[in-house]
């Protein structure tokens, strides 16, 4: 269990601290009729993550069975997935260091029309945000592979993945709570948060990518039998 959460916690932090999600959530909360839009946006991302988890749980079960037949064991599958997570995060850090735009960020034109989108549009954009982002795909498959490799009963696997989603969206849920509980009083605070996130986006992406990328690289190489 300790080994499982040693893998899940960095993935959860990676999900929770991606700046663009928080920026969009705040912009939607601050838009006209923004609370239903922000809620639909987060709900769309949640549904997409559940879909990813179901798909990868099925694929990982199949690939693990094949690996066991080939005498490689399911641990090799999980280690290759962690290696993919590592490379994705290190490339993200490199892109930020070279001042490339965030590939997971929404188009600037979309951010200027948040007042005109509907909750249904926000729901669809939330789905697209997760399904079109390589970063979020590898976060989810990394979590699913870690949970599948932990040898837990089915109920505990489902609970662990539900916790991964909930904790990975904890930042967004906190912003929603602030916006729903006190929409008027929270306006200045939300504006300050979004200003800070936009100003520090490059540093945050670079730091998260480097720290967690190296962490998962070490874990992947260890799982593949490469001496550290």
Automatic annotation (TrEMBL):
Designated name of the protein: GAP family protein
Keywords attached to this entry: Membrane, Transmembrane, Transmembrane helix
Residues spanning the membrane: 6-29, 38-60, 80-98, 119-138, 158-182, 203-222
Keyword Protein transport included in the entry's annotation: no
């Amino acid at each position: 269990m300790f080994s499982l959460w040693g893998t899940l916690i960095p993935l959860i932090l990676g999900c929770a601290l991606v700046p663009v999600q928080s920026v969009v959530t705040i912009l939607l909360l601050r838009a006209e009729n923004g609370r239903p839009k922000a809620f639909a946006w987060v709900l769309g991302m949640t549904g997409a993550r559940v879909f990813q988890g179901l798909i990868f749980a099925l694929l990982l079960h199949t690939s693990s069975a094949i690996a066991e037949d080939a005498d490689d064991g399911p641990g090799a599958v999980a280690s290759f997935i962690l290696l993919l997570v590592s490379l994705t995060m290190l490339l993200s850090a490199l892109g930020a260091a070279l001042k490339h735009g965030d590939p997971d960020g929404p188009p600037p034109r979309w951010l200027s029309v948040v007042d005109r989108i509907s909750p249904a549009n926000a729901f669809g954009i939330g789905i697209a945000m997760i399904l079109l982002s390589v970063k979020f795909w590898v976060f989810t498959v990394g979590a699913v592979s870690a949970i599948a490799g932990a040898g837990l009963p089915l109920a505990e696997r489902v609970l662990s993945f539900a916790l991964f989603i909930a904790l990975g969206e904890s930042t967004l849920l906190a912003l929603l709570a602030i916006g729903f509980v006190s929409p008027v009083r929270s306006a200045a605070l939300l504006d300050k948060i979004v200003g800070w996130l936009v100003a520090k986006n490059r540093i945050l992406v670079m730091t998260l990518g480097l720290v967690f990328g190296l962490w998962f690289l070490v874990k992947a190489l260890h799982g593949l039998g490469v001496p550290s």
